[in-house]
Structure to design on (191 residues):
């Protein structure tokens, strides 16, 4: 069912609720955690380039998802010469007490070898802005669940998508380092 929901996010018209964090990351490493209600139908937890998330949020609801990039329909070969840039979003898909993972490929792929793992009590998200990568963790055991690249050419914000009902609770930062913390609306930025 999660695999089918993931395909829906990339190939059809649908209505989603998108929540974008009000704190953008523009440098350094940032970490936050959240608890997703296990009875949530489908929740996507992650980050995205602020400008692209704002575009996505303002697009009319009857437009195809921005994660779906239809083929131009011509075979000029121009598509083959482009350098693959990191995606503007990185989301972990969660639904009905499970997390959809894929084996070494982006979660947006249609990899049939993907698997599901039980939803941990808390999910940690670590964004390394300079490296252009985001890592998702079981925030209780600190076991890495998935890591991928993300476009960090501008401010990057935490983002959450809800389809079919769901709930999550943001957690305060849990860190052992002595660092200055700035907390706004549940998101913590490390300086």
């Amino acid at each position: 069912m999660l695999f089918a929901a993931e395909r829906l996010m990339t190939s059809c018209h649908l209505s989603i609720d998108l929540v974008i964090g009000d704190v953008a990351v523009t440098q350094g490493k940032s970490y936050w955690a959240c608890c997703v209600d296990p009875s949530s139908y489908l929740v996507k937890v992650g980050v995205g380039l602020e400008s692209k998330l704002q575009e996505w949020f303002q697009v009319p609801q009857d437009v195809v998802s921005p994660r779906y990039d239809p083929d131009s329909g011509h075979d000029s070969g121009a598509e083959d010469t482009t350098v693959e840039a990191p995606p503007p979003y990185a989301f972990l898909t969660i639904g009905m007490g499970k997390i959809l993972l894929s084996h070494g490929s982006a979660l947006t792929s249609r990899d049939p070898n993907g698997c599901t793992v039980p939803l941990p009590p808390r999910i940690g998200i670590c964004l390394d802005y300079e490296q252009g990568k985001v890592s998702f963790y079981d925030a209780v055991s600190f076991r890495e669940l998935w890591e991928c690249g993300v476009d960090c050419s501008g401010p990057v914000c935490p983002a959450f998508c809800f389809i079919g009902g769901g709930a999550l609770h943001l957690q305060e930062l849990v860190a052992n380092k002595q660092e200055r913390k700035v907390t706004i609306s549940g998101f913590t930025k490390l300086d």
